Amino acid sequence: xxxxxxxxxxxxxxxxxxxxxxxxxxxxxxxxxxxxxxxxxxxxxxxxxxxxxxxxxxxxxxxxxxxxxxxxxxxxxxxxxxxxxxxxxxxxxxxxxxxxxxxxxxxxxxxxxxxxxxxxxxxxxxxxxxxxxxxxxxxxxxxxxxxxxxxxxxxxxxxxxxxxxxxxxxxxxxxxxxxxxxxxxxxxxxxxxxxxxxxxxxxxxxxxxxxxxxxxxxxxxxxxxxxxx
Length: 229
What we know:
This protein is α+β, with helices and mostly antiparallel strands.
C-alpha cells in the first residue's frame, strides 16, 4: 500500500510542475480606457478595470481572460445592453470602440483577434464579409459551439509591447452591420477578443526531464521496498 501511495504521489508532482508553466499575460485587475462612439448613452471615454463590470455609455462591459496554452491567452471584451435594447444610439451614424492602455505583465505579441454580434446571447448565423470585416467561415476559437465569428486567423505580429493601444472596431454607419448578416435592430451584445503570446516565454522543464524525475522517484520507491523485503 505504501508503494502505491508513492507512485500516485509521483504522478501528482509531475502534473503540478506542468501546470506551473502557465503564465499570466494581461495584468489581473489593471485598468484600461474604453472610447465609446455612438453608444446608447452617447460618446465618451471610460476607465475600466480588468475583471470587473463597467458601465460604458449605457452598455455593460465585462472582460474574460482565457489561457491558450502555457504562454498565450485570450481576453474577450463583452458589451451588452442591459435593457435588451440596441447597441447604438443612432443606427445611421458611425459606431465604434477603441481600447487603450491594456497592460501586459511582460513583452507580448498581439497575433490574433475575432469579433461577433449576438441577439440575446445567440450569434448571428450565417454571416458574411462586409466592408473590411472579414468572415472566413471561422467558428468561435474559444468555443466553436457559440457560432461563427469575423476574423479569427492568426497573423504575423508587430513588435512586442507591454501596453497595447488603439485596439478598435468602427462601423459607419452602424446599420451597415446588416450587410454582414447581422441585425442592427435586434443585436444587443457585442464580443471583441484579442490573443496575446509572450515574446520571451520562461524556460520550463522539458518532457524528458519530467520523465526522468518521475523515474528517479519510482526507482527510489522500488529500492526502499526491496530493502524492507
